[in-house]
Amino acid sequence: MRSDTELQHDARLELMREPGVDAQSIEVRVQDGVATLTGNVRFEAESWSAADAVRRVPGVQSVVNETMITRETSVLPADSDADAARPWFPSK
Fold first, then answer.
1. Nearest residue to 42 via CA among 92, 91, 90, 84
2. Does the structure show a pLDDT above 80 at 20?
3. Residue 56, domain member (yes or no)
4. Which of 11, 27, 62, 71 is most buried by a 10 A CB count?
5. Cα separation of 73 and 42, whole Å?
6. pLDDT in tens, 49-73
7. Contact 58, 72 (CB under 8 A)
8. Taking the chain, what is the end-to-end CA distance rounded to the nearest angstrom?
9. In whole angstroms, how far apart are CA 38 and each of 33, 53, 59, 75, 81?
């Protein structure tokens, strides 16, 4: 069985290879074979792609995707109370 450190390393490599994913903005932690993704992404599709990439790593049991989708705050009206980011938790 591969260690969590090895899985984390391989997950980072897989994120760097994934087109459309800014791997530098996503952190990967692995504990007991469960990979947790955190950080900011630009689109829901980027979040999905990141999670799918990590799921492909042999030995990763599951992926918890806690990435946040960032929004451009400069396009919001000055009096808007809209969130600048929101969590994305895809269904299993």
1. 84
2. yes
3. yes
4. 11
5. 13
6. 999 999 999 999 999 999 999 976 5
7. no
8. 24
9. 16, 14, 20, 25, 24
Q: What is the pLDDT of residues 67-77, one digit of tens each?
A: 999 976 555 55
Contact indicator for 7, 60 with CB cutoff of 8 Å: yes
Kindly state whether residue 19 falls inside one of the protein's structural domains.
yes
* Cβ-based neighbours of 7, under 8 Å, separated by 6 or more: 30, 33, 35, 57, 59, 60
3-state secondary structure of 62: strand
Q: How many domains, the chain?
A: 1
Structure tokens given for 20: 């459309």
Instruction: Report the C-alpha gap between 69 and 47 in whole angstroms.
Output: 8
Q: Hey, what are 53's tokens?
A: 């990439």
Q: 33 near 27, Cβ under 8 Å?
A: no
